[in-house]
Every structure is written in C-alpha cells, then in structure tokens.
From TrEMBL:
Boundaries of every ABC3 transporter permease C-terminal domain copy: 288-402
Protein family according to the UniProt entry: Belongs to the ABC-4 integral membrane protein family.
Record's keyword annotation contains Transmembrane helix: yes
Domain MacB-like periplasmic core as annotated: residue spans: 21-247
Record Pfam families: FtsX, MacB_PCD
Name recorded for this polypeptide: ABC transporter permease
Cellular localization per UniProt: Cell membrane
Record field: transmembrane: 21-42, 284-309, 339-362, 374-392
Membrane topology designation: Multi-pass membrane protein
Principal location: membrane
Keywords: Cell membrane, Membrane, Transmembrane, Transmembrane helix
Amino acid sequence: MKFSDVLRTALFALRGNWMRSALTSLGVIIGIASVIVMVSVGQGTQAEIDKMVAGLGSQRLDISPNVARASGGVRMSASSFFTLSQGDVEAIRSEIPEVQYISGSLRGSSQVVYAERNWNSSWQGVDADYLVINGWVVREGAGFDEAGDDKSVLIGETVRRELFGEDSGIGETIRIGRVPLTVVGTLAPKGQSSWGRDQDEIVMVPLETARRRLMGSMGMPPGAVMEISLAVANPDDLGYVQGEIESLLRQRHRIPPGGEDDFRVRNMSEIVATRTATTRLMSWLLGAVATISLIVGGIGIMNIMLVSVTERIREIGLRMAVGAGPSDIRRQFLAEAMLLSLGGGLLGILIGVAGALLVGQINTELPVELNGKVIALAAGFSIATGLFFGYYPARKASQLDPIEALRQQ
C-alpha cells in the first residue's frame, strides 16, 4: 500500500467513530497544553530571577552589623549597633586588592520638600562606588562632586516626577527634613524590585553629608556606617575575598578566637545560586507533572487502539485475504495512532499557547515566557507518543492469523 492509501484508510477508520477519536486525543491535548503552560511559567519565573540577579550582582558582598551579637540580648544605646566604620571601608580598600569597588552606606527616610510639593521617600548616604556596585546609572546631570561638595543630591525617577513633574529638577534646591540640598543629577529608572518595592523612590546624598547633617542627632560613633557593599573584578575571587574580609574585620574589631563576630558578610552569589536552584527544581517539577499527564494520554491511545484491534479482527482478516501483508496492517494501525496523537498535539499547542498568554494577562505578577523550543519539543513529544503507544497495538494486529480472523463474528 502507498502512503497515501494508508493515510486515507486511517482517516476513514477514525472518522467512522469520531467521538471516540476525539475523546482519545483529549488526553494528549491536555498533556501538551499542560507542558506548554507550566514550562512557560517556569521559564518566565527563571527569567525574572535572572533579572533580579543582574540587580543584586553576582560579584558582590554585603557586610552588615550582627545586631544579635552587638546587643547580646540586653537593651543598649543606639550607638552600640553601629559596629562598622569608614575605617573598615578604607582598610578593605587598601589591603584587599581584589576588591574593585567599595562603599559604606547610611540610610533613613524623611519628607523631601520642593516649594509646595513634598514626598515621603527613603534616602541613602553613599560613596560614588555605590552607584556602580548596584547598577545605578545617572540619566541626566552628573554624579557626586569629586571635589567633595556636601550639598549635592541624586534623585530617583519617582521622586523627580512627584516633586518636579515634567522638569528634571537639576539645579533646584530641595529639603530632606530641614537640610537644603541641590539636585545635581537624576537616576535612570529601575522599576519595581522582585519584592515589589519601588526602587525609584530613592534619594542619594554623599556619605559624609548623611553622617553629619541627616543623622547627626542619633549619637553615632565617628565615621560609623550601617552597611558596606563591595564588588570584585573576578567572580572566582569572591570566596577568597569573603575569607580575607572576615579575617581583617575580626582583627580590626579585636574579636578573640572563638568569639562571635559583630558583623555579617552576605555572599550574594550564594543567595542567587540558591534561588536559581530552587526555581529550576520547581520548573522540573512542573514539567514532570505535565509529562505524566501526557503519558496518561498516550496510554489512553494504546488502550483505544487495542480495543479497535479487537473490534476489527474480521476486517483485518478480510484485508489479509485480499493481499494485504502484515506490514500493511501494521502501518495502517500505526498511522491511526499517529493521527490521534498528532491531531491532539496540534490542538494542545494552540490551547497551551493561548492558556499561557491568558495566565500572563490574568495574573500580571506571574511571569510567563513562551519558548519556541518548548513548543517544538511538545510537538515532537506528541509524535513520539503516537509511535511509542501505537506500535504494540499495530504489531498485535499484524500478527493475527487471517483464517482465525475471518472466523470472528
């Protein structure tokens, strides 16, 4: 039999009982659609985490006070919690050459005022390196004055919009609390973070300005900082640099051997790796669940094809009696199984793509990313399902004895 004859015969057989054929394909349709939707959600989530990784920086370390160690469970003064200093920053900069950028920082929140407009915003006192470490770009204007101007300020997009509307605000004087500062530049927008916080609702001032003019009433030790952020040139040096920093700070803070550190070093690459591994595991889990449903659909095809062989034994005997060989019978039943799985696969792809887009529209917080490779893989899997689960019924049909088959009523 020619291929066209096999295909025409298979289509005629399926059309003769179209309801059963449609219900048989339903398992493959659901399986393929599930694979596409779940994998698209998983890849979208992974892409969102990759974006977050770019924001955090895989070559970065953050050093913060160990508040539990500083307090020891006893109520203490505010100055006792400032265990890091600008001296630590300078020591790390000079003694660990692998550190490329480093900045201490102070932070707080206050009312930002311009003329009759005001906006409650967070502020940070930082060095110029802080912008590079955290991926901030000055969109308009200039960065902090290298000459040491202590009255300059950089504003985020949200603050700029709320205070100045369509104007850039560069050169204007704003007040943070009661402290007047001059806007020297605006920051390029970053949008919301992965935690839903508006990153553009920020004001940045020189670190010394924040220490003397914005936090002078808090009774901080001289040169204190709340946090130290740094970046290394080579990601492979991150573990080594972390060890060197811990050793240097223990020495500077006179912490005895075995004593608890009054600081904490966070390796952002380890946090990122953990988040990435967790998301990848969830993606595999979602894909496995969808694949199981696809296998169940394939088993349904095998079951119906076996029933079809049983119902059509006399037909098979007649075909063999008029000259059809075992290979012709095998190809016919295999073609029927392939048509069921391929038709179900195509419908499943359409439903899966539509479902993934619908999920993205309904829940904007759930990222969805369609991937052509996943769709092609789903199509290939549907073909493989037809071949795998259709071969045994086709082989069983081709091995029937024609004389015994003709005796069947």
